[in-house]
Amino acid sequence: MRVYRPLTGLAAFKVGKDRAVVAIDLLVSGARMEARASVRKYSRHHRIVDATLKSLGLELKGMPSEEVTLKYRKRLILCTLYYGDGGRIEYAVMASFSPGTLSRLAKKLEEAGWKRLLLLEFKPVKALQSSD
């Protein structure tokens, strides 16, 4: 039985670096690429991210891309790397399932020269209890 996990964060960065440099930036920031994680398993979440970006005016659909999974502080992050001309990674879009994860990682990536375009974090609102 599959359990749907809602996304709690979304971030987009302008990178403009080679893939090897991006991998080093991620490692220095504390995130590592997971080789064994199945990207297909999260295809529904990637579609949600694409739709959210499109609604915000950041449509990157026509660019060649690579979907990878990252681990940051034992938390899973979905990442899509968008390639420009010359094989350089122009944009990186990340989505997480844990609140606060992307904001911590974003600070470290900005120190490495990544330009943050978007950072959204969703926190559930606790139901208001009526005092009748």
Describe this structure in words.
By secondary structure, the chain is α+β, with helices and mostly antiparallel strands. The chain has one domain (9-121): Double Stranded RNA Binding Domain, CATH 3.30.160. Helix content is 27%, strand content 34%. The chain is built from 3 helices and 6 strands; from the N terminus they run E-H-E-H-E-E-E-H-E. It has helices spanning 19-29, 43-55, 101-111, and strands at residues 9-17, 31-34, 65-72, 75-83, 89-96, 115-121. Strands 2-3-4-5-1-6 form a 6-stranded antiparallel sheet, with helices on both faces.
Largest sheet: 6 strands, antiparallel
Structural domain tally: 1
In the CATH hierarchy, what is the class?
Alpha Beta
Number of strands: 6
Q: How much of the sequence is in beta strands?
A: 25-35%
CATH architecture: 2-Layer Sandwich
Shape: globular
Strand order of the largest sheet: 2-3-4-5-1-6
Average pLDDT rating = 86
Order of helices and strands: EHEHEEEHE
Q: Number of DSSP helices?
A: 3
Q: What is the CATH T-level topology?
A: Double Stranded RNA Binding Domain
Task: Output the keywords.
Double Stranded RNA Binding Domain; 6-stranded antiparallel β-sheet
How do the strands and helices of this protein lay out in sequence?
Elements: E1 9-17, H1 19-29, E2 31-34, H2 43-55, E3 65-72, E4 75-83, E5 89-96, H3 101-111, E6 115-121
Antiparallel strand pairs: 1-5, 1-6, 2-3, 3-4, 4-5
